[in-house]
Amino acid sequence: MGESLTIPGTLPTAHVAVDHYSAVHLAAETARTVAGQCGLPGALPDRAAVIASELASNLANHATNGALFIQALPLGGGMEILAADHGPGIGELQQCLADGYTTNNTLGAGLGAVKRIATTLTIRTRPGAGTLVCARLTAPDETAAADQEVGALCVPADREKDSGDACAVVDHGPVRTALVVDGLGHGPQAAEAAQVALRSFHRGPDSPLPELLSGLHRALRRTRGAAVGLLRLHPGQAEYCGVGNVRVVVLTPLDLGHRLSGQPGIAGLNMTPPHVRTFPVPPGGTVLLHSDGIDHRWAQAPSSFVHRLPPPLLVASLVHSHRLPRDDATVLAARPRQRLP
């Protein structure tokens, strides 16, 4: 069995739209709650609240169309707070990262404090366009969890409390296995199907992919069914096995390729015998899976900025800029594990 772990399907992504300064308090309290759910000890929930407050204040004061995404780390071991906006970007990023730097008229105030408090801080910005931030927080004995090259976000449709999508990632040895599931439709019944799929996946995530998909198909028979995508990452290559409209893309700093989707059908209702497709993953490549709650047209001509985003910021960018609000949306991005010694 793999090294399994808290997943977004168990602790859903909290999406806080920062369209008014009142959202700062909501962001802080949400981060404190998520930190407690993740089991972060001592003063760490309060530190999570400070991080969320600083990032939300920046967005409220200086950014356009800002949002925070607050959740457990995809592979467990802590939590993360992701911030995204559509501009104006940060002109003097290194200056903003100095602890104690403040300003009244530009984005970036408080980032020095966030850098000091967070276990890791990752930022990418395009002056005039937008900024993406990922602050990860772990217990002192779990700091390695903050370096995981995995990003995942699962956001329900507007006006829905529960998401009919779900995702999971498990590492076992040098192999990384991921699931994205999209329950048919949205609402409570779709959410039930997604949770049934998660439980089935975690019974044997290191099983051969056709066996995993067949098990999911059996488990989903008493639900409305789902589209399912299963990805297995090895050093240098990947395997994909799926049914329905879960899309797969390989993204490198220079290229986008190997666009795949699942075989026709619906897991739990009708499915032909599963088959596996294998494809290479170049050094530095990221494999991305997403449900149809993400507009597929994002992949027609992504900017060089998007090509170079690390997995956590890549998923934040796609959800923030390409989510279809009437549907649940999930994006999972991962790189192969580094070869073990």
Automatic annotation (TrEMBL):
Residues 138-336 form the PPM-type phosphatase domain. Gene3D superfamilies: Histidine kinase-like ATPase, C-terminal domain (3.30.565.10), PPM-type phosphatase domain (3.60.40.10). Pfam families: HATPase_c_2, SpoIIE. InterPro entries: HATPase_C_sf, HATPase_dom, PPM-type-like_dom_sf, PPM-type_phosphatase-like_dom, Ptase_RsbX. It comes from the Bacteria. This is Anti-sigma regulatory factor. It comes from Streptomyces angustmyceticus.
